[in-house]
Amino acid sequence: MSQNRVTLKPAALLLGCAVFASTVSVSAYAMRLAPEPAATETMTLREALQRAIASDPAVAASLAERAADREAGVQERATRLPSLNVTGAIKNTDSDVISTPFKDPTATTSGFQERYDSWQLGAELRQPLFRYDLLARGRRADAQDQLAEQAFIQRGQALVIRVAERYLAVLNASNELALAQSEAEAVSKSLGDVRKRYDVQLVAGTDLKEAQAREDLAQANLLAAQQAVDSAQDALDEVTGNGRAQLFVLKSATELPALDSLDAEVWLTRARASNPAYQQALAQVAVAQANATSRRSESLPVLDLVATHGRQDMSESRIGSKANSTEVGVELRLPLFAGGAMSSKVREAQARLAQAQAEQARSERELLRETRRLFREVQTARAQSQAFQRSLESSQAAEQATRYGYEAGKRTITDVLNAQSNTVQAKRNLDRSRYDVLLKMLQLKQQAGVLDANDLTTVDTLLTSN
Asked: Do residues 73 and 87 share a domain?
């Protein structure tokens, strides 16, 4: 099992800022937003991220959550510092005093009645001198800072992935639409050719019906493709506010990048060191360890330096007085018995620690499994892309041969339409696989905890305008 103690690394802070805004300054309290380009301009993937930072409510929520989470560490450290309390009171007293020394000789009772005003003011300064868990409180504060930062980084990387997924989804849907339009045009042309051949009785009526059926199917697919583009643009617009902008596209001749390391162990090492979810699991163990120490300390002596100063004025009373007092001393408190509650709290804390350690072990196993899976998926996606490229070339050659056979009267229109459909499907598979390679690479970097906005700039270098 990895070590449980977690420290906040400066690199984590830099990564968190780089994720949310490499060119846009982000802090837990303020964010300077880049000017938004006009909606008619072509939007790069990096610009889409900048727009998301400027317009996505999830970003504002994440900044606020980070600011709130960081206060847990501040509050924890405050328990080790001096505390100063001021108390005051103004009173009006109506009393019936029975007292022999103040007996009125002419009265039948011993004492007197009076009503008077009084006030008092005091201040107490308390500095903890000894708590068994003072060091544990410091470790807990550091771990709580770590939890806040790693959660912030995790949400930032999720934003990068969300923008990339939706941007690439629009590109893929647009490709699907272009293919559907191309297929519909090709089928319509084939239908026109079949009608001419049917009119001169060169083909049977079944060929005409088959061509018409394919025409209807192509039109239905075209409508579905258009709807898919609209949905993808809506999703992109949700995070960027500019989902209808012209986007850069991935050309079929563009060579896809390779991973910077083809060794799975390298990615596993990176994931252990940087994955935000796993780092939070480590921090949770550190918090649970500090809690267990604090619970044990509750049955041990507590030593405080206490300084008090007070003033009191009861001079309006017949037996009143004015007093100023200052006290400085050491206060010792030793809990002896609380009905078994302290022992119960210790057992609870130990159980919570065991739970956190088990969750850490589970998180580590899940981390390694997911990292291996994504690494394999990147490699598989690249291999599939190459295979689909060869499949497209074969489908195009087969379609051409089928057309020659149809023109020579050796193949039917059904054969031609099937060949066209195979070519379109091969092109569709190739486009999907190429976008899948890019997305899987980003997801692998997210899993390893090394994803930042610069990775979107790298993808932008592969895209070109229409």
From this structure: no
**Residue 338 carries which DSSP code?**
S
Residues 6 or more apart from 84 whose CB is under 8 A from it? 123, 124, 125, 126
Q: What pLDDT is attached to residue 448? A: 95
- The H-or-E segment that residue 432 falls in is helix 413-448
In this structure, are 75 and 102 located in the same domain? no
CATH no. for residue 308?
2.20.200
Query: Which amino acid, one-letter code, is at 277?
Result: A
Using an 8 Å Cβ cutoff, are 144 and 73 in contact? yes
Looking at the fold, whether 394 and 430 belong to one and the same domain comes out as yes
The domain tally of the chain equals 2
What CA–CA distances, in Å, run from 192 to 73, 167, 187, 412? 74, 38, 9, 15
What is the pLDDT confidence band of residue 106, given thresholds at 50, 70 and 90? low
Residue 3 lies in a domain: no
For the entire predicted model, the pTM comes to: 0.79
Q: What is the rounded distance in angstroms from the CA atom of residue 167 to the CA atom of residue 416?
A: 35
CA 306 to chain centre: 45
1 falls within a domain: no
The Cα-based distances of 309 to 91, 129, 328 in angstroms read: 20, 20, 9
Q: Looking at residues 12-16, what average pLDDT do you find?
A: 40
CB 37 within 8 A of CB 43: yes
Q: Is residue 231 in some structural domain?
A: yes
Residue 317: which of 93, 89, 90 has the closest Cα? Answer: 93
Residues 6+ positions from 97 with CB-CB distance below 8 Å: 111, 112, 113, 114, 318, 319
Residue 58, classified by CB atoms within 10 Å of its CB into exposed (0-12), middle (13-18) or buried (19+), is middle
Backbone angles phi, psi at 113, to 5 degrees: -115, 145
Structure tokens at 381: 């996606």
Q: Where are the beta strands (DSSP E) in 208-367?
A: 246-247, 249-250, 302-313, 322-333
> 75 and 101, same structural domain?
no
Please give the Cα distance from 275 to 448 (Å, whole number): 5
